[in-house]
Amino acid sequence: MLNRLRNFLRAPEAKASRTARLLTLESGGRARWTPRDYAALTREGYVKNAIVHRSVRLVAENAASVVFLLYEGAAAHDKHPLLDLIARPNPRQDGATLLEALYSYLLLAGNAYVEAVALDGAVRELYALRPDRMRLVPGADGWPEAYEYNVAGTTLRFEQNAAPLPPILHLTAFHPLDDHYGLAPLEAAAVAVDTHNAAAKWNKALLDNSARPSGALVYSGPEGSVLSDNQFERLKQELEDQYQGTLAAGRPLLLEGGLDWKPLSLSPKDMDFLQAKHTAAREIALSFGVPPMLLGIPGDNTYSNYQEANRALWRQTVLPLAGRLGAALTQWLAPVFGGELRLEVDTDRVDALAADRSALWERVTHAPFLTLNEKRALTGFAPLEGGDRLG
Fold first, then answer.
1. Residues 6+ apart with CB under 8 A from 171
2. pTM (two decimals)
3. Per-residue pLDDT tens over the stretch 94-123
């Protein structure tokens, strides 16, 4: 009787992940700031480095140009409110512009945030939010209970238990050491970016110094004699005024009174300057999943190799990124629009994959052991009534 009374008074069982509280280290709902300096990485990378800038734009623009197909089960929809929302997400942006921003944020910060604006139970608009202004607030169970967006001294809080759907979709790149925030390709390439930027600055400084390596003026006057302080300052000032900078390029150095010029530093060839710069550029490109030859980095840049590199960019980088975003959007928005919806990339409209598509059609056409519906399934089409026959 006593045991039954204890069972009756016991708190009801709540199902939750047993590791969630370990992941958050008993955070108790405290706000957690992003651990990386997004502004500094973006400034040194995307703003100041041509390789990073072009890599991000190449991936983001291509991924934003793909066309999504909407399926409900096996049926494809040509027109649907979800497709209209993605095509016209808000009054200020078209679909491609919004998606390009999301892809760029994901590459530069490792995180991308989408805000859904709902009215009368329906999602009307989507907006991309800057990742450096957003912070995640974990709940007691370890999952995000809210997001806080800070701008101009004002904080706006998005509760994730709001109806009809969580107002924020948080996209992350995988990070093995962080439970909430993603690891950006730019952060992985930070050392290569610094090397590439330093090489560019060194080259610019060399050009500003008339493309001459640094050196020293050696005074070899009478034994025991030295330059006076006034002579030293005057000589130093004349060198700065007359022989430094691009305007003084090629000007001969007139030496007198026992002065001799001794170059000190190594030449660019000795330092293997260009090779170091190309190596850093290659590492940056590879971190973003871009074949180096597409960025003009010296290599085997033949026409056939360029076509293969472009195909590799789409197969290994662009399509997985676009497919992941499509899956995340449908998982987030499908409950509002109803039905078992899914967004898939229409690879038939990707010019870079035309050769692969032609080869697939050729194989399917000359496969007499496949039924008509099996052929249609292999090429991405829905089955037809009476199509279960060989043809």
1. 102, 106, 111, 112, 113, 114, 182, 324, 325, 328
2. 0.77
3. 999 999 999 999 999 999 999 999 988 889
